[in-house]
Amino acid sequence: MGNRLTQIATRTGDAGTTGLGDNTRVSKDSLRVHAMGDVDELNSHIGVLLCEDLPADVRHLLVEIQHQLFNLGGELSIPGFELLKPEAVLALDEALATHNEALPRLQEFILPAGNRAASLAHVCRTVARRAERAVVALDKAETLKDTPRQYLNRLSDLMFVLARVLNRMNGGDDVYWKSERMARADAS
């Protein structure tokens, strides 16, 4: 891995390039930098979500996810390097199974709404999807391992499920989309 930062205002990026972990420099608008930025933004949004009152198991899970996203960012910053392990995807699968089991089946699409914690989880979900798209675009230009794409895909699903879990704190519920189909079914 490249040198750790000892100062922040290096001025080395003033010309529109940034250094990768392997000491190469790339344009700040490269696909790799976009993917790294989206993962960093996702991690920051999870940090905001962690400011909320959360169940202890959800808090622990989100902190672990932040560490794994940091691994993913490191992997993206060093072409050809692997930091995010397949076990991280399996951990998300297990969390999905656990949290899904406690939830009722969906009746209709839900809105990204509810209490503040659930709404922040929905923001994390959408940023995870964007990060996934950025990783897919990078993978078309440069071969990547499967784990980063799989991790972001599962993580976006998990953030949807966690939003549902968080909406149920203190007796809340999902906020369902009022579709025409549901309106007809309710009228019957």
Automatic annotation (TrEMBL):
Q: Kind of enzyme, top EC level?
A: transferase
Q: Where is the composition biased (Polar residues)?
A: 1-10
Q: What residues does the Cobalamin adenosyltransferase-like domain cover? A: 8-165
As for family, the record states: Belongs to the Cob(I)alamin adenosyltransferase family.
EC numbers on record: 2.5.1.-
**Keyword vocabulary terms for this entry:** ATP-binding, Cobalamin biosynthesis, Nucleotide-binding, Transferase
Q: Which reaction does it catalyse?
A: 2 cob(II)alamin + AH2 + 2 ATP = 2 adenosylcob(III)alamin + 2 triphosphate + A + 2 H(+)
Keyword match ATP-binding = yes
Descriptive protein name? Cobalamin adenosyltransferase
Q: Where is this region: Disordered?
A: 1-22
Q: Which GO terms describe its molecular function?
A: corrinoid adenosyltransferase activity
- Source organism: Hydrogenophaga laconesensis
